[in-house]
Design goal:
By secondary structure, the chain is α/β, with parallel strands linked by helices. The chain has one domain: Rossmann fold (3-Layer(aba) Sandwich), CATH 3.40.50.300. The strands form three sheets. Strands 2-7-1-8-9-10 form a six-stranded mixed beta sheet. A two-stranded antiparallel sheet has the order 3-6. A two-stranded antiparallel ribbon has the order 4-5. This is Phosphoribulokinase.
Length: 202
């Protein structure tokens, strides 16, 4: 079922489970260039407008380098999701892409989010099988290959990304064939009109 494009973010925010006395986790998964960051930010804004404490954690922070897609879901679970499930504080380190290593500084959720808000995890790998038991709502972002290619070409860091584009695409292909996150998504945001986002399909 489709709704008006202007309201898809509100509908998606309404699909996030209500207060459960713990941090609720939403994942936004999809191939490179599909529009995951845009969907995550629009969802964050829609939840904030409803008075929900919300934070976004990009998977970019957790990939251990350009060959690290397969390892990142395990780090997400170990550093963030399992501690939250135990009622403990989530603490993680961000990967420093310039230095090629994780930073020494630890990061944690803002207090209001840790007290029972919503954590939106955005990026390839967030829909992995090992992540799913900890997730309240999983979102898949869809876009045609041509649209994704145009977006990747237009990225501000396209020059930095270009040498690794095939390496990353190959990892995505292996990951999605094995993990099949789209089939397990609770909602699908179809990005089929260039930069326009159509609606979630529950």
């Amino acid at each position: 079922m489709e709704t008006d494009r202007a309201g898809w973010d509100d509908r998606l925010a309404a699909a996030v489970p209500g207060d459960r006395g713990r941090v609720r986790v939403v994942t936004v998964e999809g191939r490179s260039g599909s529009g995951k960051s845009t969907v995550a930010e629009r969802l964050r804004a829609a939840l904030a407008a409803r008075g929900t404490a919300v934070a976004v954690l990009p998977m970019d922070d957790l990939y251990p380098g350009w060959h690290g897609l397969a390892q990142a879901p395990e780090l997400l679970v170990e550093w963030v999701l399992e501690p939250l499930a135990r009622g403990s504080a989530a603490r993680w380190r961000r990967y420093d892409w310039a230095r090629g290593r994780f930073s020494r500084e630890e990061y944690s959720l803002p207090g209001p989010v840790a007290a029972g808000g919503v954590l939106v995890v955005e990026g390839c790998g967030s829909g992995a099988r090992v992540v799913r038991p900890h997730v309240d709502l999983s979102v898949w972002v869809d876009a045609p290959d041509a649209v994704r290619a145009q977006r990747l070409d237009a990225r501000g860091d396209a020059g930095l990304y270009a040498p690794f584009r095939r390496v990353w695409a190959d990892q995505e292909a292996v990951f999605y064939a094995a993990e099949r996150p789209r089939e397990h998504a609770g909602a699908v945001v179809g990005n089929t009109r260039g930069t326009d986002l159509t609606t979630p399909r529950p």
